[in-house]
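User: Hello, can you help with two protein structures?

Assistant: Certainly.
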Amino acid sequence: MPPFDAGFGVYIHWPFCQAKCPYCDFNSHVRRAGIDEARYVAAFAREIAHMAALAPGRTVGSVFFGGGTPSLMKPATVGAILDAIGRHWPIAADCEVTLEANPTSVEAGRFAGYRAAGVNRVSLGVQSLVEADLKALGRLHTVGEALVAVGIAAKLFERFSFDLIYARPGQTPDAWREELVEALAHAPTHLSLYQLTIEPGTAYAALHAAGKLHVPDADRARELYDVTQDICSKFGMPAYEVSNHARPGEECRHNLLYWRYGEYAGIGPGAHGRLVTARGRRAFVSERAPEAWLDYVERDGHGIVTEEVLAREDEADEFLLMGLRLREGIDPKRFEALAGRRFDHARVADLAREGLIETCPDGRLRVAPAGFPVLDAIVADLAAS
C-alpha cells in the first residue's frame, strides 16, 4: 500500500433523476422511457472488475452510491452492485455503505430493501424545510414527506444524514436560524449544509443572468454562514469539513476518504477516481453520457475517457485543496513527501499572524475558524512555491 495510506473506497454513480433541479450541475439525466437496470448492473460489474485489476489487494472501507438519484434504483440493483464489489475486493467488517436518497414517499418505501441489500447509512436530499423554497429549488417532495422519510431512515439505519441548502433567495439570518434548529431536532448526529452557488450551465445561472433570480450578497451570505457555525456548535455538531457537521465519531467516512486524499475507484457515468499504481497516482474520468458510457463498457470493459498520471506538484495541490477543508487539517510531512519541498515558512507565519491558520500540538496544520470563508485564497497561498 502507498505511504500515508488514507484508505480505499468505491464510488458508484447512478446518473438518473426524475427531474433536473435548477441549481444542479451534477452529472444527472432525466429519462422518460425507463431504465434497463439489469444492463447497467452488468456494466457496473465489468467496470468494477477493470478497476480491481488496476488496484488489487485493497480492502474496501466505504462504498458511496451517489448521483443523480440512487434511490431510484431497485434494492436488488444495489445488492447486485455490492455483490460485484465483494467479488473483487475484501470488504472491511465495519465498511460504511451510504446511499443518497430523495425523500419522496415512493423512494422512502424502498428503504427497508436497501437496508436488506447492505446499505447501512443514507443521506437524504431534503434541501429545505420551507415549503415555498422547496418548490423554488425544483424539489418533488413536500416538507411533510421529507420529515416522514427522515423518520423512516432513523428507524431503519444506524446512521443517517440529510442535506440543506442555505443562502437561498430572500433568506434572512433569523429565518435560517429557526430552520436549522428544527433540522437539528430531526438529524441529531450529521448534517450537510451547503451554501447556494450559481453554477454555469444551470437553469439558475440563466435566471440570475437575466436578473430574475437574486441571491444574498457576500455580506448576507457571511451572516448566514456565521449563523450555521454558531447554531451547529451549540448543538454539539461542529463543522468537521467546510459544509459538513457531525457529532464526534459520526462523520461520513467515505467523504473523509476524499478529504484525507485516500484512494477510490469511481464507477459509472461521469465518475472520477484516484488510484495509486506502479505508474504513480492516476486520475480517471469516465464518459458522462449514460448511454455512451454503457456502450464503452460493453465494448472495452470500462468507460474511462481520460486518464492521467499526476505530477508531484499536482498531487500536492490536490492534497492541500482537499485536506485543508477538514477541521483536523493536514500533516505537513505528507505534503513534503508529495511535493518534494516544505511549505514556505514565511507564508505560514504570515497566515498564522493573520489568524487564518494554526499549528496543532501534534504538528498538523489546519485552517482556523476565521480562515474558512477565505479557504481558496489560503490554499493558493500555501501551494505557491
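That covers the first. Now for the second protein you mentioned:
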Amino acid sequence: LDQVEPIGIVVWSGHRYAAGCAASSLCTLQAFFCEDVHLETWRANSPAAGQEGVRLSLAEALEIGVAIFAPMRMEWPSWIPTT
C-alpha cells in the first residue's frame, strides 16, 4: 500500500478453528477501524466482537494476508521481498 488514510487504521481479525480451513477459521470476521478508540467501542458494543481474535496494525494485517494468499498465485508479486 502506497498510502492509507487515516494513518491509525487498525484491524480486528477474528478467528476460530474450523477444520484447518482458512476461509472458515480466519476470514469470518475482518473489521477495519479508523483508530483504536473505534475498535474498543465496537468491541464493547457488538456481539460479534466476543469472537476470539487479535488487533492488528494495517501493516500486520497486510503481511498476514500476503503470507496466506500470495503462495496461491502463479507468480510471486514483485513488490514482496523474497529474502
